[in-house]
Predict the structure.
Amino acid sequence: MEGAVIQRKIDWSLVITWLLLIVLGWMNIYASVHFATSPDLVTRPGKQLVWIATAMVLAAIILFMFKPRLWEVVSLPGYILVVILLVAVIFLGSDIKGSRSWLTFGPISFQPAELSKITTSLALASLLGKNGFKLDNFKSWFLTILTIAVPAAAILLEKETGSMLVYSGFFFVLYREGMSGWVLGFIFLSILLFIFTLIGPVWVPFAILTVAMAVFFLTKYRHSRRSYRRKHKIKQIANATVLAFLTGAVIIFMSDFAFNRILKDHQRGRIEVLLGLKEDPSGVGYNVNQSMIAIGSGGFSGKGYLQGTQTTYGFVPEQSTDFIFCTVGEEWGFLGCLVVIALYAFLIVRIVLDAESCREKFNRTYGYCVAACFFMHLIINVGMTVGLMPVIGIPLPFMSYGGSSLWGFTVMLFIFIALHRHENY
Amino acid sequence: MSRFPKIERYKKLLVGLGIFVLILLGKLFYIQIIDDKYKISASNNSMYYETVNVPRGIIYDRNGKILVENRISYEILCTPRETREFDTLELANVLEIDPEYIRGKMQDYKLHRTRIGYQSVTFLRQVEVDNYMKFAELEYRFPGFKAVVRTTREYPFNAGGNLLGYVSEVDADYIAKHPGYKPGDYAGKTGLEAARESDLRGIKGYKIYVRDSKGRILNSFRDGEFDKDAVPGKNITTTIDADLQQYGQALMQGKVGSLVAIEPSTGEILTMVSSPGIDVEMLHDIGKYYPQISANKHRPMFNRTVMASYPPGSVFKLVNGLIGLQEGVLEPWYTYPCYYGYNYSSSKKLGCHGHRSPINFEEAVMMSCNAYFCYVLRNILENRKYPDFEKAFNRWREYVMSFGFGQKLGSDFPGELNGNVPSSNFYNKMYGKNRWRFPTIVSLSIGQGEIGATPLQIANLAAIVANRGYYYIPHIVKASEGVEIDSKYYEKNYTMVDTTLFPYAISGMWRAVNDLGAGGTANSAYVKGLDICGKTGTAQNPHGKDNSVFLCFAPKDNPRIAVAAYVENAGWGGTWACPIASLLVEKYLNGEIGEFRKDLENRILTTSFIQ
């Protein structure tokens, strides 16, 4: 009796999309290593099958064995536990490729950072979901920023810059929950200013900043006409504009400093290559160059499954993990890329719509957090393989090789599916 | 509050998502569909094309003797990406080169490493066998270097560097003009090698291998499905007679000028000598000799046979005479007086040498009388048949051009010049319309003045007269198996002069050579039994001594060879060009030089005008 009800309420379209992405992912992992000889690579398709099977078990457990209410209950203790792990790993973690983010327990090693995305999302949902919580006072802001910043800072100290960037996706969630759109706008403006300070003459970022500030002021000014303490309001707007302008100016002046002093050599190199300040196809730019060659050579319909020469013969590094999208691009061409990206877009849109249909703010906020994470991963990962983003080593959800990320994303998604189902129950 | 209905935030977020997704898809569309750069990079990356070099075609003479063949030589290739640290001095020692050369090359590769990528580039050419053997033994110590066998040209006959032309590595300019060549390819640059490049070259093949990111060869790509078979270059048979060519070279040794022989019945070029020329020894490594060649003031690279335009001198009287006969303003029995020349104005005289007077057409040809042909050209140009002088002149020009002057003959030999037959426009510009008359251009009567012809055109005139009025376009390649020549080389080209009129000129030419003691200008060409017909010329030359010119053919009936000799700054036509051309004819027709002409031969072979 109860079983029938459950089956009806699960959003199966999300489950099917998830399954499709996992299957496509496995096929491409196989394609990227089928010609390899090193034992580490040949065993990957087999290992991934094990990860997939266990991920399915995890998904089933989340859907059928736990009461969804559990997640709200464990959100705070879970969050604190993971933060402790994150900090611990800075000191105890094993050093893998320059980052200390892996915890090893005997044969099993995992990244607390993957878990952290889930617990931070839950904690953020729980905080924003409290009755009467509104982002209009200092305390609310402080708690919100703290919730996001603490794990983000810990991850940064683990030298996992890529995962840290994903946390900036939570600003989309905050926007949905009432943060001013101008904040989002200012974040984009800052990125723009940073880029133009590095590539252009100095008047360009200032021109952009001035125009942006003018737009900001005039829009606000127009809206203030109906305000009832108009003079005071205009003064406020003017102050905000001047403050924002000064901040922008500081960003412009700090850009060079940050770029040359704070960033590590390899990070600086990646950004230089991305912005075209430097050409270095055999050094820092090698990954991206090879990746673009692989994808570009796929053409419209690709070279055919297992027929890709670039990906098969190991020209693209990190082929089965971070650069899995290259195999899609080379062997399945533009059509394949379109399908894969469409699947992700569908997944994200569907989660957002499901979240919107939730009555409980906790569920909705969590849904947005999940969508934001997937979005950030998609944009950064695919953007990196096609040379739109600097090389940031983060996986493509469900498709990249690796148990830790597959489990993490699966748990994240299925908690939402479970919450959504409970809601409609 | 607002005039517009408020858009819900989740919708704005979804629009944002859409924008980002479109940016990703746009970039994918660009690199996958619009930009081809990545597809090319991909095959450079993972495919290794092993070139299968093919030998260049062999060049034979008309009798099957090999003029140019191939010789094995060795080259060292370098794949910069595969090189490791190595002992520069040791490599320099093995290859017997300057260590600085190696350092320079390596620096160069480093500079262009992106462009070179995984490709192999030529590191050193023309490696001697001994050095190659030494290198082969020690090759393992120089990863990234390998030796390959190449073929270079070898010349068993000294058939003339200008005729055969040289083969050298293509440069950027050449590649730009000739698609299908890559750096490191060789191509014929001058002479026959250039004329028949497309046949001689053959088609390179390649085998495709797949390699991994470390540059290791893994296997043949799809079992060789896409490999390309190599097609060796086609062999070329030339119309050249190797022995005659060699003899012609010997005759022209020490002289500046040209010697061209044509088989009149086919238009096939038997001999083509430009002197001084490039020795065949220099051809296989032209780069090495280049400074020496370009320092020579006589410009050995310059192929005078087709690239020099000279005043033809008295041999051109034949053309004027024939035109006169055709136009009816001259009959063979017309006689004209000559008192050491022709007075073309009250005070000006075009001089002539001493001979009896008056004379008829045949005698005028025989004795090369200047005055006689001044009368002839005057009659042609002042013909009442034509409404004005200019019309008559233009008609004359048409006639002249029908003899192959003033235009490229269309030979298959590269670099042919037009020569020059002045037009009425030219004189109009120079003197003004109607301000020039026969006296102005009197020197055209005797092939001087503004007229210019290449030695090939002069030889062609000899062939025309030999054929009694037509010519085949002179050419240097014979059709042979797999090699076709243009059908135009099989077509007769008639002049505008009737074939029945040529015998009058020919009898004068016969007497010039064979009527000993009658005052003929070409007695020194007389060979018993060969019936050589010839016409001398002494072309005035503003740069020094007169040029010595002679054209002839033999035998008189059913001629087998027509020759033009042009010797710069040598003096009288009868003294130098005439013996040279006649010796060539004798050699060709008799196979050897007769006993009592040995002294003459010896004089020619040993005289040098070049200090």
